UniProtKB/TrEMBL annotation, chain A:
Name this polypeptide is given: Iron export ABC transporter permease subunit FetB
Keyword Transmembrane: yes
InterPro entries given in the database record: UPF0014_fam
Regions that span the bilayer: 6-25, 37-58, 64-82, 97-119, 131-151, 190-208, 228-250
Taxonomic source organism: Thermotoga petrophila
TrEMBL record, chain B:
Presence of keyword ATP-binding: yes
UniProt GO MF annotations: ATP binding; ATP hydrolysis activity
This protein's name: ABC transporter, ATP-binding protein
Entries under InterPro entries matching the protein: AAA+_ATPase, ABC_transporter-like_ATP-bd, ABC_transporter-like_CS, P-loop_NTPase
Swiss-Prot/TrEMBL keywords: ATP-binding, Nucleotide-binding, Transport
Gene3D superfamilies given in the database record: P-loop containing nucleotide triphosphate hydrolases
Residue ranges the record marks as coiled coil: none
Source species of the chain: Thermotoga petrophila
Pfam hit, one: ABC_tran
Length: 262, 206
């Protein structure tokens, strides 16, 4: 049994919710109409484009296309972390931090993805785009959110509470020890959204991948097994990415003389 | 102990030559904004000069590992910082940073009495007044027993009588244990403790 197809008119009818939101914004005089419109158009355009690209890749499976798709997702995620962090730091610190962000997002997500695809699911052929692309998307997307939060918390803590870091250095602390409490705080804030979504899963909401599988006719039990596995894969991706970032990231704030440079 | 030669830092400091002797008490005075704190931070290697050279026991500071230096040359900041945790954890944090032995509680209580701070080891220092925090921070650096103590305005949050009493005790502590003590202050009352008095004006030594 396949999913019920949605006709064009039916799909358009779903945009009624955008109209309702715009109406409420106008009544409340909240100047967000432009953003809602842009978000709706971008969402539609990006998904239509992704649909065509995915159809092509799925119809013409090739290692090159799969690797390229994962690469594009990685680049987009790294760029998005830069954008979300809105770092107002000296350019030297910012550049080094961006380099560490790129390393942490890519290593964390790739390690988790490789383990998930070839140890947990054991896909064949290794580049099967039907598995690699959606699973990579979920792992990369969640790691992106985690690292963004980690970057924001770490850099804000160090710059706002600079006096604590300096006081620790004055007492002979290594930079790693001087920022330890901020690293711990950053790690906590980075993994919290993933933990929260795990707590609510299956009761408060049914996650997207599981819903999609059930809609397309898969047994709920198979869908659940996949969902449990991917949640653990996401947890792995977030944990490794954030850990790598925090292992390296604090170094961006110090020079070779172990002096704080913000 | 320290020799500074042609040291320049932004528009803040411009020192042709300065000697800070070992096992003596050096008091550095001058109005606010004359570069006193900048000078102390340089001796602690928290910042480096734009040009010129600073020697510590004859070795250029550049060639000494910063963290190792800071464990020998400990600095007390002007605005005392409280780390998360109780009084005991705050006292021990410096020793933990450098991996030194942890003393018994009685020794910690003695050091609190030494800085005239009647508090329990389990008290929460976040609730302390500015003066109490300053004394706790002073106790923390004394406990580390370093070769050189750099104190930046150590009496700024204390009343005059307590401030003088504490500096007198710290001076005796330094003399008895042959420590090098450098005190930065704008309080003229502290000049009397100086073996060497240095006055700064507009970043220059007078």
């Amino acid at each position: 049994m396949g999913p019920v197809d949605i006709g064009l008119i039916q799909l358009l009818s779903a945009y009624i919710f955008v109209v309702i939101l715009m109406f409420i914004l106008r009544i409340r005089r909240i100047p967000r109409e432009k953003e809602v419109l842009v978000a709706s158009i971008r969402m539609t355009f990006q998904l239509v484009l992704a649909g065509f690209v995915l159809s092509y890749i799925l119809d013409h499976p090739s290692p090159l296309y799969t690797v390229l798709a994962v690469l594009v997702m990685e680049i987009f995620a790294i760029y998005n972390v830069y954008k979300r962090a809105r770092l107002s730091l000296p350019s030297k610190v910012k550049k080094r931090l961006e380099f560490f962000i790129a390393i942490s997002v890519s290593t964390g997500t790739l390690l988790s993805l490789v383990y998930f695809l070839y140890v947990v699911v054991r896909i064949s052929p290794w580049f099967d785009p039907r598995y690699v692309i959606p699973l990579a998307g979920m792992i990369i997307g969640n790691s992106m959110t985690g690292v963004s939060l980690g970057v924001k918390t770490l850099s804000e803590s160090i710059t706002i509470q600079k006096d604590i870091v300096e006081a620790a250095l004055m007492l002979g602390a290594r930079p790693k020890d001087a920022v330890r409490m901020f690293s711990d705080r950053a790690f906590d804030s980075a993994i919290l959204p993933t933990l929260n979504s795990m707590i609510g899963m299956g009761i408060v909401f049914l996650p997207g991948m599981m819903t999609g599988q059930i809609l397309s006719g898969a047994s709920p039990i198979t869908a659940i097994k996949y969902q449990i596995a991917i949640m653990l894969g996401i947890l792995g991706g977030v944990t490794i990415s954030v850990s790598v970032f925090l292992y390296l990231g604090y170094k961006a704030f110090f020079n070779r003389e172990d002096q704080l440079i913000v | 102990m320290f020799v500074l030669k042609n040291v320049k830092y932004k528009d803040i400091l411009n020192i042709e030559e300065l000697h800070i002797p070992a096992r003596k008490i050096t008091v550095i005075t001058g109005k606010s904004g004359t570069g006193k704190t900048t000078l102390l931070k340089m001796l602690n290697k928290l910042i480096s000069p734009d040009s010129g050279e600073i020697l510590f026991k004859g070795t250029p500071l550049k060639e000494i590992d910063s963290v190792e230096l800071r464990r020998k040359v400990v600095m007390l900041p002007q605005f005392p910082v409280v780390f998360p945790g109780n009084v005991k954890e705050n006292l021990l944090i410096g020793l933990k940073f450098s991996g030194k032995d942890i003393p018994h509680d009685e020794e910690l209580r003695n050091i609190l009495r030494f800085v005239i701070l009647e508090k329990d080891l389990n008290d929460d220092p976040e609730k302390f007044s500015g003066g109490e925090k300053q004394r706790l921070a002073l106790a923390r650096v004394l406990l580390m027993d370093p070769e050189v103590l750099l104190l930046d305005e150590p009496t700024s949050s204390l009343d005059e009588k307590t401030g003088i009493e504490i500096i007198k005790k710290v001076s005796n502590f330094a003399k008895n244990r042959e420590k090098t003590l450098v005190i930065v202050t704008h309080n003229p009352e502290l000049r009397k403790f100086a073996d060497v008095l240095i006055e700064l004006k507009n970043g220059r030594v007078l």
